[in-house]
């Protein structure tokens, strides 16, 4: 394949309505009506605004599902749910979703994953004490229990026992209707990775251990956004075949993308987490303590780490596509790239949740 042909694939299709499907975007996107500012020096790509009708419809359906159908949150948390902006998040990360129903697959899973984090780990009563047992039982809503008849019914009933398990169970039911067998198995694997990362962070919390920077990054490769971009083909209404997904080069590309998006979260949530009542590990905090840097120096080094991960992701994606010019590979890589850009855009412009430190 010629270099120019590879570039055409990386740029994605051309024509009306295809701008959001490009892997490497350098053109200017329409200005956002939101007011958030990007982290200075952070490598990212601008994105086009999502369809406002899709945003509103996903918001409406997600709220009805979360509050009315599965009673995920009490009424007094409604403002926080609205402030999260799940409709905008999903619409901007999955612009190639054929229908709102496809977007809702991602929206339910995203809301459920955040509920597990809130209820079990952080904001709403979470604790490292006993986290392993709670996560294991919640995980059976993702990877179902196969047991003897006597104990099958109590397990089935347990899936309604608390809000995170109700969310996982319901969201997974909808996902299973749209996903192939290999997509289901892939997602279960990535949620197991996520839960392993939760447990590592909880263990460090219990022992008051500040990990080395490389240890923190290893934890973040598990406790990260990977379950979200990994379903980009399901949400897009197609499948990246299992043998292509399992290639080491593809696994590296997905890992680099997921790691970069998670450092974005560390950077944008930095001031929010520092203002909380408890000590919270994030990359700038770990760098500051382990490398004896000022808060500003540590934050700016975290920006550099993010940028290196992003450049690595883009270089590895281009190399993979050159070596494997399969249409499903090209579409999946574009989908992951769009998710990475959309994730940054959502963090940058969600001023309800995030604000930047005064380091510039």
Automatic annotation (TrEMBL):
- Identify the EC number(s): 4.2.3.-
Molecular-function annotations in GO: metal ion binding; terpene synthase activity
Q: One GO BP annotation here?
A: terpene metabolic process
Which InterPro entries does the entry mention?
Isoprenoid_synthase_dom_sf, MIB_synthase, Terpene_cyclase-like_2
Q: Kindly indicate whether the keyword Cell inner membrane belongs to this entry.
A: no
SUPFAM superfamilies per the record? Answer: Terpenoid synthases
Q: Give yes or no: UniProt keyword Lyase.
A: yes
Q: Which reaction does it catalyse?
A: (E)-2-methylgeranyl diphosphate + H2O = 2-methylisoborneol + diphosphate
Q: Which UniProt keywords apply?
A: Lyase, Magnesium, Metal-binding
Q: What residue spans carry the region label Disordered?
A: 27-53
Per its UniProt record, the required cofactor names are:
Mg(2+)
Q: Which family does it belong to?
A: Belongs to the terpene synthase family. 2-methylisoborneol synthase subfamily.
PANTHER family attached to this UniProt entry: BETA-PINACENE SYNTHASE-RELATED, TERPENE SYNTHASE
NCBIfam families from the UniProt entry: f2_encap_cargo2
Listed name of the protein: Terpene synthase
């Amino acid at each position: 394949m010629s270099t120019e042909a590879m570039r055409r694939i990386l740029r994605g299709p051309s024509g009306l309505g295809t701008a959001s499907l490009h892997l490497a975007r350098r053109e200017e996107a329409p200005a956002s009506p939101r007011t958030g500012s990007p982290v200075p020096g952070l490598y990212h790509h601008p994105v086009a605004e999502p369809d406002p009708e899709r945003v509103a419809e996903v918001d409406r359906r997600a709220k009805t599902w979360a509050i009315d159908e599965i009673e995920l949150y009490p009424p007094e948390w409604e403002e926080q749910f609205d402030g999260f902006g799940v409709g905008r998040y999903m619409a901007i990360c999955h612009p190639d979703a054929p229908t709102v129903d496809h977007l809702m697959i991602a929206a339910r899973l995203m809301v459920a994953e955040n509920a597990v984090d809130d209820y079990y780990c952080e904001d709403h009563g979470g604790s490292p004490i006993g986290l392993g047992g709670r996560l294991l039982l919640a995980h059976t809503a993702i990877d179902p229990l196969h047991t003897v008849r006597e104990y099958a019914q109590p397990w089935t009933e347990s899936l309604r026992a608390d809000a995170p398990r109700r969310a996982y169970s319901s969201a997974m039911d909808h996902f299973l209707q749209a996903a192939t067998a290999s997509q289901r198995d892939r997602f279960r694997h990535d949620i197991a990775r996520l839960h392993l990362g939760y447990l590592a962070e909880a263990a460090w919390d219990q022992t008051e251990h500040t990990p080395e920077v490389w240890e923190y990054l290893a934890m973040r490769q598990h406790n990260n956004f990977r379950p979200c971009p990994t379903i980009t083909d399901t949400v897009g209404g197609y499948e990246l075949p299992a043998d292509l997904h399992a290639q080491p080069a593809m696994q590296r590309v997905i890992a680099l993308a997921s790691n970069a998006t998670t450092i974005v979260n560390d950077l944008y949530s930095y001031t929010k987490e520092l203002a909380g009542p408890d000590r919270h590990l994030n990359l700038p905090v770990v760098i500051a303590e382990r490398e004896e840097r000022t808060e500003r120096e540590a934050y700016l080094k975290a920006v550099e780490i993010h940028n290196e991960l992003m450049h690595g992701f883009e270089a590895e994606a281009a190399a993979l596509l050159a070596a494997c010019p399969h249409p499903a590979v090209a579409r999946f890589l574009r989908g992951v790239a769009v998710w990475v850009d959309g994730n940054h855009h959502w963090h940058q412009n969600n001023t309800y949740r995030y604000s930047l430190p005064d380091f510039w």
